């Protein structure tokens, strides 16, 4: 059920972005002004709309692939709070961009993508269990090239969005470090089903109680 929910939400968000880009292309309009414009009152609305607005089909396709993988991973590995994390990552990343970024329109889902990647990576580090560390290792291997995007390296790229998402993801991973992940849940079940730990297993139940009496 959770996997289906994650897939549906991921596809829905991607579909909205592609629909808007199709409208732009078919009508010959540009929706970049719905992005975030830092420290401008109207630019505040971009905090909610910017992940769905992209500069071109190449930009949109690139973000679609990354977002699909990471968003689905978020719902698969941390199903209990995935939707909450996704909303908070979008909101807080957008706020940071509005407060600190260059005076320009910032659009695209890159900040959210960096936020999810950062969150999944650091929650594995903070939880310190083998299962969660596997998440961190996979994220690091698959997205190591993203580190380049955290600093100014190419004109027209909102590195501020990338850096904001990365920072927000790290902070939120620490905040939610005690949440149950898919790997930590499986690890707990394996321990509970292990009859050999500590050399014994408690056999007491309602029908049987062990009563110890000292010798006189």
TrEMBL record:
<protein>
    <submittedName>
        <fullName>Rhomboid family intramembrane serine protease</fullName>
    </submittedName>
</protein>
<dbReference type="InterPro" id="IPR035952">
    <property type="entry name" value="Rhomboid-like_sf"/>
</dbReference>
<dbReference type="InterPro" id="IPR050925">
    <property type="entry name" value="Rhomboid_protease_S54"/>
</dbReference>
<feature type="transmembrane region" description="Helical">
    <location>
        <begin position="157"/>
        <end position="176"/>
    </location>
</feature>
<dbReference type="GO" id="GO:0004252">
    <property type="term" value="F:serine-type endopeptidase activity"/>
</dbReference>
<dbReference type="GO" id="GO:0006508">
    <property type="term" value="P:proteolysis"/>
</dbReference>
<keyword id="KW-1133">Transmembrane helix</keyword>
<feature type="transmembrane region" description="Helical">
    <location>
        <begin position="60"/>
        <end position="78"/>
    </location>
</feature>
<keyword id="KW-0378">Hydrolase</keyword>
<keyword id="KW-0812">Transmembrane</keyword>
<feature type="domain" description="Peptidase S54 rhomboid">
    <location>
        <begin position="45"/>
        <end position="177"/>
    </location>
</feature>
<keyword id="KW-0645">Protease</keyword>
<feature type="transmembrane region" description="Helical">
    <location>
        <begin position="133"/>
        <end position="151"/>
    </location>
</feature>
<feature type="transmembrane region" description="Helical">
    <location>
        <begin position="85"/>
        <end position="101"/>
    </location>
</feature>
<dbReference type="Pfam" id="PF01694">
    <property type="entry name" value="Rhomboid"/>
</dbReference>
<dbReference type="GO" id="GO:0016020">
    <property type="term" value="C:membrane"/>
</dbReference>
<keyword id="KW-0472">Membrane</keyword>
<dbReference type="InterPro" id="IPR022764">
    <property type="entry name" value="Peptidase_S54_rhomboid_dom"/>
</dbReference>
<feature type="transmembrane region" description="Helical">
    <location>
        <begin position="107"/>
        <end position="126"/>
    </location>
</feature>
